[in-house]
Amino acid sequence: MTGVWGLAALWLGLALIASLLSIWFRISTALSEIVVGTIAQLIIGAAIGSAVLGTDESWVKFLSGLGAIVLTFLAGAELDPQVFRLKWKEAASVGLVSFLFPFLGCAAAAYYLLGWEPMPSWLAGVAMSTTSVAVVYAVMLEFGFNTTEYGKTILAACFVTDLGTVVALGLIFAPFTIKTLVFLGTGVVVFIVLPWVTPRFFRIYGNRPSELEAKFLLLCLLGMGALASWADSEAVLPAYLIGMVLAGTVGKDHALIRRLRTLTFGLLTPFYFIRAGSYVSIPDLIAAPIAFVLFLLVKVGTKIAGVYPVTTLFGSPNKEAMYTTLLMSTGLTFGTISALFGLSHGIISQAQYSALVATVIASAVIPTVIANAFYLPRHLLPKREVPAPDREAA
């Protein structure tokens, strides 16, 4: 167990460094963790060996996957049903073009400019079409946008984008079998029953030191995640849907959400973001940068071409529209999932996989840094309460 404790200390030390960097440079913690993961893999791999970081250890994979699941659930729980009903046209329009433009544009770039075969090209389009719910939610939470109508509309648009990604991946590549029907049927029942059962169950047995609420939610997330994996889908998709259907109940329990955030951001998501960053091979990118640069330019360019006009059409001023566009240009969870799906099923090669994953991770960092540095809509930031001055001290 000595090696396990030492490795855990190393990962949490990297997470602490990332948190300090995020404070010093005023960037999102999620982005600093990705960058720290990339640099750590480069330095530790060169000095000692790439295996020292332990990214392929089963317990590291579990904590990383669980972090993605719970973070995605929290993002879904932040959706306000009333805001979604009022803003569904904007969210659906932004989300749809955010998926469709890069999907077609990157697939065409892979086929016509890079000379990839049709199926790898379609997979590239799927991987590049995503918007990272994890990154966007982390940024929303960092600035407090998650409590605003603006932030909740963006999160709803992210859901539409990633739903398009999952559907495209399933229709083009994943086999539609009896397992798929079982998963869909069970999911429909669970998503209908949960909003009715959960508040009643919590009212009778909740608010106790045993943290029954967290155990119940984790049971639902992991159970549906296991079923999704069995059906050749992805565990984060039912997590987001569970968060959405419980947004009107669990999402309004601020104490419970705060406790889940402590667990998620304090322990789980550092493993997810640092591990994601460790997959970027800087030497490989330097040796063969063409595919990486092309995909990054096409993805961000098509996102801007699709999302920016739609946001302005719905009345967003230039700065706000550009901030929304850049956040919708991020990618991470579903992008890496799609690339890994292609590699494990023999659709793409290792070199193609490296180019796609590097682009996905770069798109999580570069657009967000630019957005927060130059286009942050400060007029939409929630007003923070200023404590009254101490009269005796005065």
In what range is the share of β-strand residues? under 5%
What structural class do the secondary elements suggest? mainly alpha
CATH topology: Na+/H+ antiporter like fold
Whole-number count of domains: 1
| Arithmetic mean pLDDT | 85
Count of β-strands: 0
Inertia-based shape: globular
Q: Quickly count the helices.
A: 16
- The CATH architecture would be Up-down Bundle
Low-confidence stretches: 385-394
Architecture overview:
The structure is a single chain. The chain is mainly α. The protein has a single domain, classed as Na+/H+ antiporter like fold, CATH 1.20.1530. It is 77% helix and 0% strand. Helix 3 runs parallel beside helix 10 (236-245) and helix 13 (290-313) crosses helix 16. The longest helix has 33 residues, at 81-113. The radius of gyration is 21 Å and the shape is globular. The N and C termini lie far apart (56 Å).
Topology readout:
Layout: H1 2-25, H2 29-47, H3 58-77, H4 81-113, H5 118-128, H6 133-143, H7 149-172, H8 178-205, H9 212-230, H10 236-245, H11 254-278, H12 282-287, H13 290-313, H14 318-328, H15 333-344, H16 350-374
